[in-house]
Amino acid sequence: xxxxRRSSVRPVETARLDAFVDASFAFAVTLLIIAGAExxxxxxxxxxxxxxxxxFAAGFGLVVMxxxxxxxxxxxxxxxxxxxxxxxxxxxxMILIYVxxxxxxxxxxxxxxxxxFLPGRGLIQTLAQLRDVYTxxxxxxxxxxxxxxxxxxxxxxxxxxxxxxxxxxEEARESRAVWGLITLxxxxxxxxxxxxxxxxxxxxxxxAYWLIPLGLFFMNLFQRRHSGHGLFGKRKQAGPDAxx
Length: 244
Fold this sequence. Notes:
Layout: H1 3-6, H2 11-35, H3 43-51, H4 53-76, H5 82-113, H6 127-158, H7 169-195, H8 204-207, H9 211-227, H10 240-243
Helix pairs in contact: 2-4, 2-5, 4-5, 4-6, 5-6, 6-7, 7-9
């Protein structure tokens, strides 16, 4: 048995690692709720709590996106080593920090775009604070996405040692490319917060993230032109044994 295989995490340890990651993502969702929680003393408090649901839904959707990405990585590369375990733990560390600027930005954004109908208007009081929130969020978002870029890249490098089958290599490559694109979006948003006049366009750094679906659209077109199918369009087909 070679050294690369000896460094692999045993199946039971992999299961424990994945369970810990799943529990950490669940705790991150709990932090989203706690970050905006207030004791309910009257009907007005109840209505304000209900008004925070759209911001919570946006944050919940992003946390779930990151969790599904890690779950998909576990499906493609079920055998872990010390480096993939370290990257998974780094993702846990980042997601537990990321939820705080995420909740602040989503709630303040909901208040801004509804003209104050939803709560959150007083969370960010100056343009300097708004710039700093965009910067912290954008850098945190980019770092988190970059960890996924490294994770899928590591699986490609390890190949069969990580349990990555040849039929899944293309999906892993596409996933790495997608996370690289999303990383650039976060950095671009943080950059816009410093180069644009936020007094005129306070929404512009946030809308930088809408470039992600546009980038994915062009990546999909490129993929179709060069391989005949779109992103993640070529999946491994289940054999007769898998259907039993």
